[in-house]
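Blinded run. Sample ID left blank on purpose so nobody reads anything into the name before looking at the predicted structure. Input follows.
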Amino acid sequence: MANQATGSGGPPRAGRGPTRRELREARMRRRSLAIATLSTAIVLGLVVLLVPMAPGWDRVQKAFFNGEIFWKTLPGLLEAFLVDIMIFAWCAPMIAVLGLVIALARDARSPALFPLRLFGTIYNDVFRGVPVILVIYLVGFGIPGLGLPRPWNSPYIWGTVAVVLTYSAYVAEVYRTGIESIHESQRAAAISLGLSHWDVMAFVILPQAIRRVIPANMNLLIALQKDVALLSFIGPVELLRQAGVYKSLLANFTPYLGAALIFLAVTVPATRWVDRLIARQNAARS
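Blinded prediction complete.
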């Protein structure tokens, strides 16, 4: 009774001061932050001091870090980046849908649907095994080589097809991982209630599986946003191709630095957001 009156032995009450353990953990966090800040400052200082001392720094600075060329080409690079965004915007939903279809095909359990399951397995093996740039070359140059009339020989169309085919295989595997993470007892319980296989999948399995794999799929979307630049090899004048045009016209590599910074301005915030999603998901599970 005395313990209950004083609050000792029970959970911390509102208005109570921090415990000794909490104070120690706070000191450790402050110490870790101070050490991390100091070590980072030392490394950055060494880079700033030592790199300009290299014999060829003047040539590298002129070729890659030319401020005048950077600001001159930046508007054109940003305009070309809109093409990347446009291709990404129409590829992403197609990849999500096709990836889900392939994942469902691989989850087909009826013996009559074995050819469908085999197709899903072969599809994933092929398009995950071939580098995306090779798929882009084979589809982007091979199909227009058939002599199709306009607009069906457009590199935008067949470049999109190549990217969707490749990334759908990766997304399908992520979906399949989410589907298999749902305990088999939930499927059995739903079937015992009279639900069909597709009803179980649509109303029990998929809502949970898709929610679990959102962070993993977001990482793939970040990779997709960068790999869209590979379509420049078959014709579209997007950010990477535009940087190459400026490099040829100005005999300087600074436009490539501008293109890299534009990509970083998009991918770094997206990556941090995915990290927050993963941390929130892990906290909810624990």
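Unblinding after everyone has recorded impressions. The two ends are 33 Å apart (CA to CA).
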